[in-house]
Amino acid sequence: MNTDHEAPPKPVPTAVVAIVDDDGRILLGRRSDDRTWCLPGGRLESGESFADCAWRECREELGYEVELDGVIAVLSNPETQIHRYPDGRSIQHVGVVFRGRLGPQIGDGDGEITEVDWFNPDQLPENEIMPADLPAIRHALSPTTTLLVD
Question: How far apart are CA 142 and CA 127, in angstroms?
Fold first, then answer.
């Protein structure tokens, strides 16, 4: 058995939400583990749909309800969808990206996201954004309504 090479990252089904306000700004959260900015979302749980996952993750991470307006992207490209955690683990996101609107606050987040902020498209902290989220963020802020599949 050859152990010189790492095993490819495990594919993990995920759902995230691109929340863009009426001023064209996008809502990002700062992750507690690696301090990168990201879209709210996460891993599918057993018996859950992608939409249910997106809705649940926004409630958990942000403490807000979210209204989902539809799917804007399906992403799985290993060139952009590999995420390496600070502890060395890697996964390949196989994810659905929803467009959403922020609803009412229902509580505090669970601590996975330590801060949230709205960003104008020309002021994105690109060097601080979780790389796997960049294609979805750019697509959500573009004028196109075409589904991104990559």
Answer: 19
pLDDT at 2: 41
The total number of structural domains that make up the chain: 1
Average pLDDT, the chain: 91
- CATH number of the domain bearing residue 139: 3.90.79.10
* Cα–Cα dist 124/118, whole Å: 9
Q: How far apart are CA 114 and CA 37, in angstroms?
A: 10
Q: Per-residue confidence at 81, pLDDT binned at 50, 70, 90?
A: confident
The structure's pTM equals 0.88
Coil, strand or helix at 127: helix
Domain ranges, residue 43: 10-149
Distance, in Å, from the CA atom of 87 to the CA atom of 103, rounded to the nearest integer, reads: 34
> Does residue 2 fall inside a structural domain?
no
